Amino acid sequence: MHYTLHQLVVYLKVIQKKSITKAAEELHLTQPAVSIQVKKLQEQFDIPLIEVIGRKIHVTEFGQEIGLICQKIVNQMAEIKDKTIAYKGILTGKIKISVVSTGKYVIPFFLTRFSKLYPGIDFTIDVTNKSKVIESLEKNNTDFALVSTIPEKMSINKIELMTNKLFLTRKFNARENSINFNTSDLEKVSLIHREQGSATRQAMERYISSNHIKTKKSIELVSNEAVKQAVIAGLGYSIMPLIGMKNELLNNDIEIVSIPNLPIETQWNLIYLKDKQLSPSSLAYLKFIKENKDAIIHNHFDWYRNF
């Protein structure tokens, strides 16, 4: 077989985009040039890589397997480039971090100084719910993940960052002096939930179940920001992470309700696969986090201690 690295790169882009046109645009090539490279690669195999049905590209099972190998080769080529540059004393590269939605209030503060120290390193931050973050980690589509619940049955390394606290909250009400609840009081109010797959949703459901609470009408929303705005509007109560409520608490938009067995406390962790071959830029980031996390927490999250 005599396929080239260029053919593998072009083929990988085509199956990722499922389009010759889009692949050509991203690779800054003409459509005929892309088609020729894919055809030359296909000539190396007796089994079809892709099929064109009704002008749509369909990747065969064999084609998908070849695509996975292509991705590994492309990653290794990028690693060679990074190592070469690193030996010259210039650290460059890309780091991808998958972050659970509430983690968007945390992760920027653990990036700012590092980005200034290493301007040649680019970050991609993917903010989504817990299920999708774990899926991305399992498929090795991300370098690191920021989570508040450690995934089970996965071989990972972790760096503990800071405590994650979840409180029962409601719209601020200056006329009511007492905001102490019993768990049974939750049966009388509307509860606002995050969507399925969210770690916040799972924590809230565990609390309700363990305290044998029969919930009333509930509302489901797909982000913490949406839940927060619903609480401010007076649509109901919700158990939410403290990390995203600083301004709303200071502005008396939201108030914390005292209730038995709350807050729920978990831990923010930066995790990565144990057998992952980390690039020089990722190793530099790990070293930075280990050496600077305490100072970052003290400088940016000292207000956390008041709750």
Walk me through what this model shows:
The mean pLDDT is 89. With 307 residues, the chain is of the alpha/beta class. The protein contains ten helices and eleven strands. Helix 1 crosses helix 3 (31-42) and helix 1 (5-17) crosses helix 4. Helix content is 40%, strand content 23%.
Beta fraction: 15-25%
Distance between the termini: 65 Å
Counting DSSP H or I runs of 4 or more residues, the number of helices is: 10
By CATH, the topology of the largest domain is: D-Maltodextrin-Binding Protein, domain 2
What's the CATH superfamily of the largest domain, by name?
A: Periplasmic binding protein-like II
Q: Globular, elongated, flat, extended or rod-shaped: what is the shape?
A: elongated
User: Could you give the order of the helices and strands?
Assistant: HHHEEHEHEHEEEHEHEHEEH
- CATH architectural type of the largest domain: 3-Layer(aba) Sandwich
Major beta-sheet overview? 7 strands, mixed
Uncertain residue segments: none
Q: How many structurally independent domains?
A: 3
* Helix-residue proportion: 25-40%
User: Based on helices, strands and strand pairing, what is the structural class?
Assistant: alpha/beta
Averaging pLDDT over every residue, what do you get? 89
Number of strands: 11
Radius of gyration: 24 Å
In short:
The protein has 307 residues and is α/β, with parallel strands linked by helices. The protein is 40% helix and 23% strand. α1 packs across α2 (20-27) and α1 packs across α3.
Features:
307 residues; alpha/beta; Arc Repressor Mutant, subunit A; D-Maltodextrin-Binding Protein, domain 2; 3 domains; seven-stranded mixed β-sheet; two-stranded antiparallel sheet; 11 strands; 40% helix
